[in-house]
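Continuing from the previous page...

OK, I double-checked the sequence for Terpene synthase against my notes and this is the correct one:
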Amino acid sequence: MQNDNPFSSSSFFEQLRKITRNEVKSYDPSFEDPVEIVLAEHFKINPYHLPLRSRFIKWFKQYEKTSPRCHEDLLYVPIYFFPTTKNYDKLFFNFILTVTLADIDDLSHSDKTFMTDFAVNCLKTLNPDPTLPTSILEFIKAMNGFLSGADDYLRDHYLSIMVEFFEGCRTENIIDRWSLSCDEYLENRRDVILSRMYTYAIWILEDRFGRKEFDLTFDLMSDIDEWGVLMNDHLSVWKEIEDEDPGNWILIKCRQTGEAFNDIYTEQFKQMLDKTYDLMNKLQMIDLVHHTDIGKNILSFVAGIYIWNKYSKRYQVRYS
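Thanks. Re-ran it with the corrected sequence; updated structure tokens here:
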């Protein structure tokens, strides 16, 4: 029977150390890489069915040779390869922080991108249940702290793959959960945050109208323009409304949006708009809504959430 806690195996660590330091001169030729021997012998894992296996091994060996801050027992545990349980949360968190954040400036741009992918894939594999336990929230916070000093490309890349992770969170409090991955570096990238929020509106509407898959590509402008045209065909809410109160400015537009859909402007809709406004105020987004395009994004996001909530039979999004 498989060991419930593979990380307690000192022999496992020893074998990995020997392998990565090239102290093992011969190994079973049926395996492509000596690391796979350890995986197969200790955990009965088929090494040919492991996502990211080859890329991780390649990066891992390079990192082990070049990093002066190699934390042995953590760096020698490729957590993504192991069957996961909730008991692994702490070890996973420590490992990812070590591998992803230690000496990150010494890595190439492609390695930074790969490790960001790797970390989020670990996140998905470790806990696919979108309830976001404490360790996951700590991980997101730590990653956001790291990304505050990263370049725009890497931040945008991280945000894009976090969208993929949060696809599993189509439950209540979706807006609050989404904000968790944004607030640490919101000040510098609020335009990107809003465009990703807008991704949700498009994605929700695609779900509502029956498309099975929606390609979350980096450039969403064609979809954004298409939805903007659709809204403009039915509404005349995008004209500038002069008002000293930004909250009132938002609610005027949202009320017009709701009225244009005839039956959706209900007390529930108004409560949801109020909640959205409170969140925007908390995240210091209010000053951005005076920009016409961003105003469109916000309203489309809100309207998309509500339409989906009202008409979708597959999912229930509740706001209380």
